[in-house]
Design goal:
Blueprint: E1 8-12, E2 15-19, H1 27-30, H2 63-68, E3 74-75, E4 78-79, H3 119-131, E5 137-147, E6 153-162, E7 168-175, E8 180-182, H4 185-188, E9 199-200, H5 201-212, E10 216-219, H6 222-229, E11 238-240, H7 245-251, H8 261-269, H9 282-295, H10 297-309
Length: 310
């Protein structure tokens, strides 16, 4: 009988069991000073007292599963459940074009095909972009005085510009380059005292045209304002509220009727403007014009965009 003990380990039923050595029953009594080391399959005598109790399922997320699981995901000859399997790691250094650092190659989205918009789509996009930028819009109103014989020649005496939100961008009295013969105070609201220290016409005109450049200009019978400024604004950037059937329909007027700013404002907003004996206010008129435009803005701009795309 040899004194050499042979410890054999095997896996069965999900747990490791120790087989007593052959021909040496009661070996613990024979070698009382030798510490017995429990063994695990494939690990020899590396760990002590780490064997789970008989019949207990192996832990997949703890240290024990890391020690006894095989590289293929099996534990002591048993295949790990699908919930515990890990996807294969991506090959290092193979991110591919456009992938984020550390992103698996299989998760990268496919590149989108390039799309070239048609001319109609470009026109619609330009109109929608312009409509979403309030700073692209200005409402213009001018007040005139009379010069020449019996004040028959109109000249600029005040100009007001308001923003999409109704804020005053520009408002100045302007001194005409020729003598005034009729101040037309009843309608213009201009008095002699207003023009004493007013800005010269040539200087004011440069300031106004600089502000109008590239903007969508809204006015009521705005061609009269452009004429007194000696200016021609691009038709694609001009909105005349006196020549739009949409507003007349909202007000209950005939589509071809050229309604005044005062009548349209009263019919649509039930608000009175241009009242009293002090005359008109170009700021008030410009704000009313912008409000009228905003009532039909979406439909008006959509109609213009579709007509340009045809």
């Amino acid at each position: 009988m040899s004194d050499i003990s042979l410890n054999l380990s095997y896996a069965g039923g999900g747990a490791a069991r120790r087989r007593p050595p052959r021909g040496n029953r009661g070996g613990h009594k024979r070698f009382p000073n030798r510490t017995h080391q429990r063994s695990f399959p494939g690990r020899g005598h590396a760990h002590r007292d780490a064997r789970p109790e008989h019949g207990a399922p192996p832990r997949q997320n703890g240290a024990f599963a890391q020690l006894v699981s095989s590289p293929g995901g099996a534990l002591c000859g048993h295949r790990a459940p699908s919930s515990a399997r890990q996807p294969p790691a991506p090959i290092a250094g193979s991110r591919g074009c456009g992938a984020k650092p550390g992103e698996p190659a299989e998760r990268r989205p496919a590149p989108a095909a390039a799309h070239r918009p048609s001319p109609a789509e470009s026109h619609r996009a330009a109109a929608q972009t312009s409509a979403r930028i309030p700073t692209k819009y200005l409402a213009l109103d001018c007040e005139m005085v009379g010069t020449g014989p019996k004040g028959s020649i109109s000249k600029l005496a005040r100009c007001s510009l308001v923003s999409y939100d109704g804020d005053v961008v520009y408002d100045k009295f302007i001194n005409p380059p020729v003598p005034v013969t009729d101040y037309r105070t009843r309608w213009s609201g201009i008095r002699r005292s207003d023009l004493v220290n007013a800005a010269p016409y040539s200087e004011a005109r440069k300031e106004i045209l600089r502000l109008l450049m590239g903007k969508v200009v809204i006015g009521h019978a705005v061609h009269n304002d452009f004429n007194v400024l000696g200016y021609s604004h691009p038709a694609a950037l001009t909105r005349d509220t006196s020549r739009i059937p949409l507003l007349n329909q909202r007000a209950g007027f005939a589509a071809t009727e050229c309604a005044s700013l005062k009548r349209l404002t009263k019919a649509i907003f039930n608000r009175d403007i241009q009242t009293g004996k002090k005359g008109h206010s170009s700021v008030e008129d410009a704000r009313a014009t912008m409000e009228l435009y905003k009532v039909v803005e979406e439909e008006w701009e959509r109609t213009l965009a579709s007509s340009r795309s045809q």
